Structure formats: C-alpha cells, structure tokens
Amino acid sequence: MKLRVLGCSGGIGGSLHTTSFLLDRDILIDAGTGVGELSLAELSAIDHVFITHSHLDHICSLPLMLDSAAWQRKVPVKVYATEETLDILKQHIFNWMIWPDFSQIPDAEHPVMRYQAITVGETVDLQGRRITAVPANHTVPAVGYHLDSGEGSLVFSGDTYTNDSLWAAVNRIQNLRYLIMETAFSNGEKEIAFLSKHLCPSLLADELAKFTGDADVYITHLKPDEVELIMGEIASYSSDRDIKMLLNNQVFEF
To answer: Which of 85, 127, 155, 171 has the fewest CB atoms found within 10 Å of its own CB?
Structure first.
C-alpha cells in the first residue's frame, strides 16, 4: 500500500492544504483542500472515500470532486463514514441547498455517490487492503483509520483529544510502522485545545506515554502560524522518540 499526503495542515495559505491522503490510486482518506492537487484523471480514478468526521477542513473537496469527476465514471464513488457523519453530510452538505444530492444524480438507481456506514472496529477489505475505523474523541462523531496491507500498517488518529480507546486499539497492532497523530495547538492554547477537542504538545506527550509500540510518529494538523512553536514544544517532551512533522507530498509504503 502507498499513502500520499495531499494535505496535512490545520489551515490554508500558499502551499498549505487541509487533511487528505491518497491511498494507492483509488482511495481517499478524508477530502480536505489537498484533493485539489489531483488531476481530473486522478480524481476520476477514486472509487472509495473514507471520512473521519464532518468538519469542513476534512470534507470540503468531496462535493467538488464528485461534481468534477462524475461524468468520467461508470460506477458510483462509495463514501464511508459513521452513520452520524453520513447523516450530517446528507442534512447539511448534499441537501440541494449547499450542494446537489449526488446520491440521487442522475437517479437513485444509478447515482454518482453511494453512502456506506461503518462502525468503530469495523474493517473494510478492498482487495486485501484492510481499512479499520479506530476511536477518536472530538467535538462531533469521529474516527481515525488503521490501514493494513498485511505486511505493514499505518494509523491515522484523525482529529482527537485524549483517547484511551485509541491506544487500546493501536497497541494491539503487531505490524504497525507509522503513526500519524494530530496536534493542532501550542501549549499556550491548551484551553482552546480542550474546548475544541484537539491535542497540544503536553497532551500529545501524555497520549504517547500510553503507546507501547515503536512505530515512526508524524504530526499533522498544526495551525499554520505556529508550526515551529508546536514542533519545538513537542521536541522538548520527546527525547526518547524521533517525532517528525508530516509534509505535503510525503509518501509512505507499507
């Protein structure tokens, strides 16, 4: 499996893009502004989209992608998320007021998009590529994802606050190579992190103390104007781990 980072910032500006990953050529993990980096041919090749949660920075390109690529495809794009997240998409995005309902276009029997509900702990097997929803703790219903090729695994936390349930799942993974964790705020904004259910470096350190594995750790979702500050604060807690910042166009193979 090959995961390409299309976007990993907590905001936009210049070359910064919000959360989205391309898995192989046909799977998206989240659909933030980074999806706009793909060509029309690449967009048309996407068959599956896994959404962590309904916040705009993780879904904003999904409506535009469907509109752009729909007429290049012969089968629907399948959108996976929890039932709660799918309900939000139906009510607030694909509602004919914000955007057309592509689950009904051109008709209900032959739609551009189909919804597929998933639950925490459920695994979707796509030709041997196993994608499992893992727990997240956020202000809206949310999950992260465990991507498993059989030979190696990667876990993306999604947007999350402190979360013992995540570590119970992660620490059971025997072939974990990469762990992508969000840390949106600096320590000086710990109260905002609490209110918005994101991590800051001190909270990340507490969370990683629960991690019993030795996978490479990468940090995502940093606020654009605090990148150096946040990574500096993370470094002050992580003398026993080499923790790196996730970068656009970075590629992970596992």
So the answer is: 127
Show the beta-strand stretches assigned E in the chain. Answer: 2-7, 20-23, 27-31, 48-50, 77-81, 113-117, 123-126, 129-135, 143-148, 153-156, 176-182, 216-220, 243-245, 251-253
Helix axes 201-208, 227-237, angle to 10 degrees: 40
Q: Are 181 and 144 in contact (CB under 8 A)?
A: no
Q: What pLDDT, on a 0 to 100 scale, did the predictor assign at position 226? A: 97
Indicate the CATH number of 2-253 among 3.40.630.30, 3.60.15.10, 3.30.70.100, 3.40.50.300.
3.60.15.10
Residue 146 φ/ψ, nearest 5 degrees: -105, 120
Instruction: Fill in the DSSP letter of residue 35.
Output: G
Q: Rounded to an integer, what distance in angstroms lies between the CA atom of residue 222 and that of residue 230? A: 7
Domain ranges of the chain: 2-253
Higher pLDDT, 238 or 117: 117
Determine the Cα–Cα distance for residues 229 and 240; give it in Å rounded to an integer: 20
Residue 238's pLDDT band (cuts 50, 70, 90) = confident
Report yes or no: 75 and 28 within 8 Å, Cβ to Cβ: no
Q: Span 13-19, mean pLDDT?
A: 95
Between the CA of residue 79 and those of 13, 46, 129, 149, what are the distances in Å?
A: 28, 11, 16, 21
Tell how far CA 161 is from the center of its chain: 15
pLDDT (mean) for 56-63: 98
Percent residues over pLDDT 70 in the chain:
100
Q: How far apart are CA 149 and CA 147, in angstroms?
A: 7
Contacts of 246 (CB under 8 A, 6+ apart): 5, 8, 180, 218, 219, 220
